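Question: does this match?
>
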Amino acid sequence: MKNVIILGSTGSIGTQTLQVIDKLEDYKVLAISCGKNIELVKKQIEKYSPKYVCTKDFEDAKILSEIYPKTKFFSKEEGLFELIKTQYDILVVATSGIVSVKTVLKAIENKKTIALANKETLVMAGDIVMKKAKEYNTPIIPIDSEHSAILQCINKVDNPYAKRLWITASGGPFLNNTREEMEKFSAKEALNHPRWNMGKKITVDCATLVNKGLEVIEAHHLYNFDYDRIKVVIHPESLVHSFVEFTDGSFLAQIGTPSMHIPIQYAITYPERKSGIKTDSFCPWGRQMNFFEPDFNKFPLLKLTIECGKTGGIMPAILNAANEIAVYKFLEGKINFLDIEKIIFKEIKSSKNIQNPTIEEIFEKDKEIRTRLSQI
């Protein structure tokens, strides 16, 4: 029996991870963490009987402990650190924010598999995280469908025959709209993704295409590829989840239903393939598949994000923080869609880079940017 901890069990990836575990034998939910969705976490406790639960707020943990006396409750950042002291086999990181980065850095020392869905970890501190993972020989298996596809194609990180990585992008809900039209779109329209069912923040990131730039940065760290060997290609049908070009001219692609259940299951059962959750009957033959270059003029944040990755240092962390605050301002109706990129470009232009920043410098800069931009 393999014990699984799910950080962010009430979010999109967390709930889908539980659905995957429902269909797998020999996998047990040892612990979960949640934010504010206490009603959902109650249902999860009753169904999965986790031994440990961590809530965001102390008061929630106190109330839940009275309802479920057989479960041990923790809270806040310190509670997450307590969870990873337990005897687990797989840690699923489906939360966002700095606390996830801190938790991953501590969890690496346990030498247990980390199934990573959190983008901040590698975008903000990829050099530090991957160096430590290598030092402790800790597997970091990506949950993102694109990075999962690459892993499935190259089989190992240091495949000497892999020439380029091609990351596919659906193009998001505004692929066929003009910038003049995009200026007027609401959060509701931005959240209407044509292919994927995801959380709100990442769905808006798909609309700006900043998500693909972040995935390029992640791929750089996960697979140790130079940025000029990582390409983005628009593929509206979202059937090919990414592909790898090899030195002999061959291409290998991972193709499947646009469902996060597949990469989640691959990550937690890696390197095995288990018979688990069933997706819709799927056959790509006879379906039209299109591929074309992204329009960097229409989606300038894609280019900016990749440039920040190439620049390195603290710039990816600056972009990540500015993007997150701008997206939430848009979701709250305080700015319009194209204001997201205006805020990010202004922040990047006015920021001074720090090469080889410490984790403390990264966290300090992140806090500074969030505090300032939150006042918009």
